[in-house]
Structures are given as C-alpha cells and as structure tokens.
Write a structure and sequence with these properties.
CATH topology of the largest domain in chain B: Fumarate Reductase Iron-sulfur Protein, Chain B, domain 2
Structural class of chain B: alpha+beta
Radius of gyration of chain A: 23 Å
Number of helices of chain A: 16
Strand order of the largest sheet of chain B: 2-1-5-3-4
Helix content of chain A: 25-40%
CATH architecture of the largest domain in chain B: Orthogonal Bundle
Largest interface: A-B, 73 and 70 residues
Distance between the termini of chain A: 64 Å
Oligomer: heterotrimer
CATH class of the largest domain in chain A: Alpha Beta
Shape of chain B: elongated
CATH architecture of the largest domain in chain A: 3-Layer(bba) Sandwich
Strand content of chain B: 5-15%
Number of domains of chain A: 3
Number of helices of chain B: 9
Number of domains of chain B: 2
Number of strands of chain A: 19
Radius of gyration of chain B: 20 Å
Chains: A alpha/beta (about 600), B alpha+beta (about 240), C mainly alpha (about 300)
Distance between the termini of chain B: 48 Å
Helix content of chain B: 25-40%
Shape of chain A: globular
Number of strands of chain B: 7
Order of helices and strands of chain B: EEHEEEEEHHHHHHHH
Structural class of chain A: alpha/beta
Largest sheet of chain A: 7 strands, mixed
CATH superfamily of the largest domain in chain A: FAD/NAD(P)-binding domain
Chain lengths: ~600, ~240, ~300
Amino acid sequence: MDTLRCDALILGSGGAGLMAALHAYDADPRLRIVVASKGLVGKSGCTRLVQGGFNAALDPDDSPALHFRDTILGGQFLNDQELAWVLVSEAPEIIRRLETKIGVFFDRRKDGRIHQKAFAGQSFDRTVHRGDLTGIEIVSRLHDQLFARDIRLLDETRAVDLIHDRPGGRVAGALLLRHTAGEFVLAQARVVVLATGGGPRMYTFSAPSLEKTGDGYAMAYRAGCDLIDMEMMQFHPTGLLAGASRLSGMVLEEGLRGAGAHLLNGRGERFMARYDPARMERATRDVVARASYLEIMDGRGTPAGGVLLDASHLGAEFVLAHFPGMARRCAEVGYDLARRPVDVIPTAHFHMGGVRIDPACATGTAGLLVAGEDAGGVHGANRLGGNGVAESCVFGARAGLAAAALCATLPDAAPDGREAEDARRAAAAPLGRGGGESAFAIRDALLSTMWHDVGLVRDEAGLRRALGQIGMLEERLERAGAPAGPRANLVWQQILDCRGLLTSARLTATAALYRHESRGSHARRDFPARDDARWLVHIHQAAGRTPWTEPVQLSRLTPQDAAAPGPMRGPGGDPSLQDRPARDGTAPRPAPA
Amino acid sequence: MIVRVRRFDPAGRARRGRWQDYRVEPRPMMSVLDALFWILEHDDPTLAFRYSCRAGMCGSCAMVINGQEGLACARRLAQLRSPVSVEPLRSLPVVKDLLVDLRPFFEKYRAVDPFYVGDEASLLGPAPEPAAVPSGDPSRTVVDRQIDCISCGACYSACPVVGLVPDFLGPAALNRAYALAADTRDRAGAERRRRVAEDGGVYACHGVGNCVTVCPVGVNPLLSIQLLRKGAIHR
Amino acid sequence: MSTRSYLFNCCAKARFIDKPLRPRRAETGRQALTWYYLRISGALMVALVLVHLFLMHYAAAPSTTTSAFVTARWSATGWRAFDGVLLLLALTHGLAGAHGMVRDAVRGPRARAVVDAASIIVGAAFAGLGVAAALSGSPHRLADPPAAYGWVPGVLIGSLVGVATVTYAAIAAVIVVLGWRLARGEPIGRWSYPGQWAFALNRAAGAGILAFLLVHVIDVALFPFAPALYDRTVAAYAMPYLAPMEVGLVAAVLYHALDGLRLMVLEALDRRATALGTPSFVALLVLTATLSLPALAVLLGWRP
C-alpha cells in the first residue's frame, strides 16, 4: 500500500478545510500540510453551494452579543454557548480577513461599505454576501490562495477510516482511497483535521452535493469519538422540486423569503398565517419547513407534491437582479422565478449535530481536530441562515491554528498497520463480489425510510421502524457488490458512500428516539412541546456505549434572560404542534402573540 | 432516447476510444447528468464520470454534449436532439470515459498567480478594514461578472488555440489574471500584466470566441484577454 | 500493487512555488511582436492589396498580365514602388503569420531554431528576388526562345498546378470528413462553432495566399530576365484547371483582409462587441462571396 507522511492532514476542502490549511501554513510554513478531498479540491463540497451569506456583526449598531442572542434563540438553547460565542465574536474578523487577505469581494452599499442583507430569525440585517452566490466566491478565493503556499493537494481522495497508533490510542493518520486511480494510501500525520462537511443526503429530498454521505460522522464514530445532537436535522423550507432530476432538493435561498416572497399551498393560501402569523414566511427554517410539510401531509400540497414559492410580486427586475443564479437554475427546468410561482418542498439541508468539540476544535481523541459541519453543538437545535458558512470559516481557521500548535508538541506516531489493513480489506471487500445487492437500491430504500420516519415530524413507532430498516439495510450492504477493477469504479464508491449514510442515519434515528420532546428542528408527534425542565441536554453517542445525556451549560444566556420582547419566540414550543396534547396529558401552553 | 457516450479505458487494450449507445428512458426535467446516473444504475456499472453539486455551481461535470462544452447537470435532455453524444473535455488527457485529468488546466491556472495579493502576506494578525468600493462603481462593471468563474474547464476545452499551442495559458487562467489585475484592492497588478504579456499569454489569443459561447456562468474570457492586451483594466 | 512512498513530493496536483510571483520566463514577447506586426502590416496593406486585386482580377483577367502589360505598368516609378512595398508588406505579414503558427506548435530548441532560420532565409530570399525585379523595372534584352529554358517552365507551371491541387484536395478532404461524420451522427469536434470556422478560414486563406505569393514572386522575378518565360507562365493562368484556384485566391484575399479588419474592430470595441462575433462573421462570408462574383465573371470572359 502506498504511504504518505505529513504533519497536518486535512480531510475536506470546503470552507473549513481550506481555512484550516491556509491558517496552519501561515502559522508555521515549515509544516507539511496535505489537503485530501473526496471530489476535486476547492470544487466539491457544500460551502460552494451557499447562496445566502455569512452572518457577522460588523455594523456599529450591531454587536456579537445580539448575534449571540439570535443564535441561541434560533438554536432553542441547545447550542454549546461557548462555541456559539466563538462563532459570533470571531465572525467579523474572519469577514475582514476574507476580504482583505484572501481576496473575497463582498457586495457593497452605496457608501462603499460591505452590504449586509436581511435573513430570517435575526434581529439585525447582518448577512454579508456576494450576489446570490456567496459560497462560490469564498471557496474559489480560498482555493486560489492555496497556490501561494506550499500545501499539497490530493484530489478525488476519500478518507476511508481514521487510523490510531494503537488500539485506544491517538489518531495517527488515515486510510485514504484515491478513487479515480483505485489506490489506497496510508497517510501518517501528527494531526488530522476532519472537515468533510457531514451532510444529510440520506433523505429523499436533500440539498447537499452528491458526494456528501456522512463519511465524517461515520469515521469519527468508528474511531471512538463522541457525537452529539445527531437528531437535529435542519430541513430548508424551499428546496426546488424538479421532477425526476437530481436537481430536486437544491435550495432556493432564504433571502427570497427575507425579501418578501410568499409561500402558498395548493389552494393558493399563504398557509404560514396558521403556523406563525407574527413572522409569516420570515420565521425560522424549522417552523417554515414543518409548516410546509404538514400542509403537504394534510393534502393541501400542489399536484407536484410540494408547495409554491411566489416571488412574482417583488417585481421581475428585482428578482433577476438580486437572485440571478437562482433564476437561471429555475429557468433550466422550466420555472420562471421572476414571474410565476415555483414548486418547492422541504429539503434536508444541514446537520446541526456532529462530533463533540471544544472551542479549540479538539475532540476527546488526541491527534484529531474537527471543524465545520462535522462538528456539533454550535447551532443547537436549529441553525440560522448565514451561520453555516460562518461556522465553517471561523472554526476552520481555529482548527488550522490549533493544528499548527499541536504539530509543535505532538510527537510523530506511526499508524497501526493492522488497523489500516483491516480497514482496507473491509473497504475493498465489495470489489468483484458478484450477484449481490444493488447499492443503489439500498440507498433508495434508506432515503425513503428516513424521509417518512425520521423526517420533519417523528414518532416512536416510526423511529423504531426506521432503526429496524437501517439494520436490515446494513446487512444487505454487506452483500452488495461492485464490478471488478478499482479504477474510477462509481458503484464501489456508492457502496462506501452507503456505509457513511447508514451510520449517520442510525445515529440520527437513535438520538431522535431518545429525545422525548420537540425542540427546533426535531419534532415529535408524541412529544410536541419543548421541555426545558428535562430535556435541555445534549444527547451523546459513542461506539460501544448506550446514548447518554449531558446538560447544556447555559454559561451566558438562559431562557429566562431571553424572554424579552421582540420577534423571537419564547419557550412555548412550535405552534404547529400545539393542537397535539403534551406527553404528560396537561393542556398545551399557548404560543406567544 | 439514445445517449451515445465516448468510452475509453487507458489501461485496457484498445488504444482509441469508442462510442457506446445507451437507451435511456427520459423522465421530466432530467439533465444529462441524470441520464448518466440512470445508465450507471440500470445499465452499465462500469461508466465513469465526475460530479458533485448537480446544480451548476461546482463545474465538476463539464463535458462535451452534442459537440458543445457544457455542464452535464445544466443541460436538459428535453432540449437536446437524440442521439445525445457525450464526450470528455477536449485538450486534456482522458483518465477513463468522461473523466479527464485536470492537472494541465490547473497548472496553467496556477501559472498566472491566481491569488489575491494584499498588503500583508500572512493571514495571522489583525485584518484591516475592507476597501470602500461603492456599489455600482465603474471599476467593478466588468470584473464583477468575470469573478464568477467556476473553473470548470469548458472554455479551455473549446478553445482551438489551446489545442494548437501547448504554451497557451488558456481563457480561464487569463480571465483570472484579468480579474485580479482589475481588482483595485490587489497589489500585484503591474507584475500580473507583465506576466500575461509573455508568450503563452494574451498575445496568443486569436479572438476565436468559443470560450464566450460555452461558459456556463456567463463569464467572457475573450473580453478579459482583450482588456488585458489594451491595458484598459479599469473601465 | 506497487508500494510507493509519497513522502511529501508525489501527491497528485502537488503544487509548489517558492515565492509568490513567478520569475520572468526566458522567452518573452515573440507572440506580442507577431500580434502587433500582423495588425500593423495588415492595416497598411489593406488599401494596397485591394487596389492590386482590382487591377489584376477585376479590371483584367490574370492571363492578360503579359510582359507588355507589366512593361507599361512599370514604366511609372510609382507603380514599381507600389508593388515593391506591397510585396514587402505581404511577404513579411505572411511569413510572420506562418512562422507564428508553426513556431507556436513546435517544442524543443532545435525544432524552434530550424523554424526561425527557415523563416528568415525564405523571407530574405524572396524579398531580395522581388525587390530586385521591381528595381530592375524593364526587361533586359534577353529575348531567348522559350525552348531554351528546358524544364524551367514545366516546374513553374507545375508548382502552380501543385498549389491548386493541394488546395482542391484539402477542401475536398474537409468536406468528405465532415460529411462522413455528420452522416454517421458523430460529433465534428469544435467545427460546430462559428468562431472555429472564422479562425480556420483566416489561417487557411493566409497560408494559401502565402503559398501563392511565393510562386508569384518567382514568376514575376522572371519578367526582367526572361520575359518570354514570364509570358509562358502567365498564359498558364488561363488554364481551366486553375480557374477555381484563381477565384479562390480572390476570395481568400478578400476574406483574410476583411476578417483581419473585423478582428481589429471587435478588439477595439471590446465590451460592446460581445454579441457581434457571429453576426459579423456571417456578414463577412456574405460579403466575400458577393465581391468574388465579379472576379469569377471576369475569368469567364466578362469585361466591365
């Protein structure tokens, strides 16, 4: 097997991975840094897909404290407050760094300062953006900066497993698979930064790039890490419905609703009036997505099976000027975003849960740092639009600096050859295995199960059914085969993808079953109310242990502090579930006016 | 509907590629990429192609469809004449079937030093305030479109000069050079302009214009090259 | 399976630069020089070429440009200067273009040196020959009978026929290959782009004009020294086999000159020209065809 030695191995090349690489290099240019990406470096991943923008408290009338409050309220107090504080306090500096040192050009106002637009769930217009294609600009400029530094890149190289130096020891590297060439590489590194971007693609409608299959969560779990909040799955309310095309699930950005677009059901009604009359379509994503889902489930959806997003009343020139990328994508499938309603459906978009980290991106395992969507806790039970790319960039930078610091202190350690060989054998097993299961059928069955039973609204029976189905699918996957020949073998890659998807799915469903309340993105039909008394806790999962909880540390803001007037919701639970009785039989608490 | 794919395996016995026809059931709104997945999942598990975002934003799936470069995820089957021919990008070595080796493309991209150069080299240390550039400023009129490049390689493939002149940097690289030269915040403009005036730079372009025709995001590399030649950077 | 150790050096797409901005490369400015020269010489030449074309192909058929015609014309110093300047511009323009085309494609210092040397030698030789002819002005009294020239007329007329044959064969080959591909539903490379055709036709026209020019310099150079031989060659222009090439030559000159102007205008207009590329090319084709018709008529016997 080919081998590779370096100091910092960064898995993933989205916002987090690239920021980590650049910062690690600038902290210590003598470090040997390798960035390995499952797709093409700087072109795959979901940071590129960011349309909306990046939240940062730049304005003198704004403050990190306000941003923090919005983030905690949006996250329904499930956030790790120290991580959230890092996010909001460092976001402004990261924006300045992106602009003045990395070369990103954000849209401006007439007076020449950076323009910040309105986004749902925020008390201040603080979303920095570039047109409606912020992500492409950020990732492209980060990618360009790689060329100014001696950083080595591995394209189309997926990480198969994290490898320890000995059983139960520290992470000493990773087993990589260069899938276009079909070759395994055992990489030895002092520090591994996991920044693969998680990504919920195990639903029928999902937004992320096609290569996002929960590999990061699965590897971290297999490596013994602690994953939290895996039940918190954000569904973006407006994913495009595009017939039989894989384009379905692609997000139409929140800025449309921020600018005033309406959501209509199949009867032409603005149904948000029944779910959140105060904020209507500008409520947070969890509320709007669930509302749309319930409309569809109750039979008031459109013939295509979704709801309608209508931006036509904003004026065609306005829509085309502010959302050109989206208008073009809609036009490709025959929709006219500027003049007619577009069919949309809630789409699995972001996974708030992930590996437990501390503010320096460290996990419990030495030698492993995690940044970006792979990490959990920053966003709590629901992520605000614009906080995702902020998290990637802020924590990616932190991880890079932490990696450089660790490289100075951690000794070299060789990865355990036997563990690597076992991982390699397990990964290569499907090759040439004939007459087996189809990985595509397994994947499709998983997508359907997750959508119906672990989707926007869950209940115990459905979750148990899902876990059973996941178990069956994992078993079927053991019999899945790919044609012989490791080079550019897309079926083999699909089988490996399914491993990640099934593990993520299992972690999600398990945590969802465990949490007996509804909070943020996690809604239980059988436990419709939010229950701070018992469930203001993180749900932890680790290999070899049953799930356990740890209380959320309300170090900076408590629900009592936050019950101040304003457009935010208080601790009353999601109004959409108010007509279902609370678990203990008491009458539901009324939603605030 | 017939999809005709150019198959080639450099490790196999055949020295040249061959066409292979597949019968695809066209369903609503299917793109060429969807068709390739359909073939992979139902017909031929040995087909190799590249993909990522499926939404026209990453540029991974650039290929030649019915003779014209484009993103497979953005070209709808319904708008194409059957048989739909699908071949890999031109001027780049074929790894397998529709997968090409993009290294030569990125080597040339790198050769123009495509990264922003600010006042300070290191990301560490406090960042200054962002430059005040009023929205609608004339210095950004052209460059604001030209920074949309997703480095998909379509222009590189479509350019005949790339095919004829090995040293030619190509439309994408030169467009990037322009975008930086025209950026009022960048500090290395003079050196960039000198670099692209060397052989293989803007004077190797013959104004063919295929690059403009095929760019999936509306960038105009020919214009960038012309403006670089004229030194008319801020118009 | 091989066991390689990447250490730190063999990663795919490994990139390394040792300082932010690259040092200057050895070869600088050749393409820039060519680019400017083609445009400057082209612009200077346009008027001269169009006048020459008119006189040789519209006002009279090519086969009527006998030594008597030339003597009459070259009795005026102005025409000799005109022809001399036109020759130098056309020759250097054509060689700059051809040299650039070939030089761009070859790699390796030896091949490059050969191309450079060949261009200079050919340029100097033909320029010398042509200028000498123009300076001499009138035929010397060497009125030897044509039979005394032996194989020389055959070679000259043969080379004209050769250029024509190559041209016809090339056009036929293009039509056959493209037609074959289209009939089988196979794609035709970049030939579905109008820009590709504009570019290729410009280069083909340029190459064809240059090839003809070299033969033409030799035959005109005969005029002062062997006017009878010159007349033999000129009479060959009346051969029906060469007629398509002659019209083709007119079309090529028109196309190449007008396309050059088109490119320069588009470059000057830059932003405003973005949508004009294909329409201007189509207009150019129409104009070329239209203006070539009178030349065809003249060849067939019509006189204005």
